[in-house]
Structure formats: C-alpha cells, structure tokens
Structure prediction request, 95 residues.
Amino acid sequence: MFSMPGLPKILVLVAIIVVIWQAFKIIGRVQKARIAEAQARVREAKAQARNPRQTRTQAATSRTGVAETRECPVCGAYVAQGSGACGKPRCPFGS
Prediction:
C-alpha cells in the first residue's frame, strides 16, 4: 500500500521547495527597496518643508547628481542654475 517515493519525485519536490524559497527572497528584496524609496521620499519632503527656498531642480540635482544648465550670454559657457558668477565682467549670474 505505502511505498518509498522514487528519486525523481524527491528531486522534483526539492526543486519546488528551492524555487519557492528563492521567490520569497526576491519578494523580500523588492519590498525592502520599496520601503527604502518611500522613506527617502519622506525625508526629502521633510527637508523641503524645512527649506522651502530649495527648488525642485536643486532637489533633483542632489538626488541624481545632474544639474540643469543655462548658457551665459556674456562668455557663452554653460553654468548650472544657482551657481555663482563665472568671473567675467557683466556676468548675469553674479551675486
């Protein structure tokens, strides 16, 4: 009536268990990443509330490391928005 399962059945069972285990590990990593991203957005919103002068461009720059640039009409160089003067006379970006 009862017999020992064959080796193929045991291997299939082990394979199913490993697949399910790996799926749970991947789901856990995705959840941790989503939580970390949500916490970063909350921190950014709190920082924005503390410093309302910071523009969205500056917030994006601090997050991505990329800045929007504009061409200086005096010297023709591209400068980041919010940066200081280029040192040329009549520079419109001077403080």
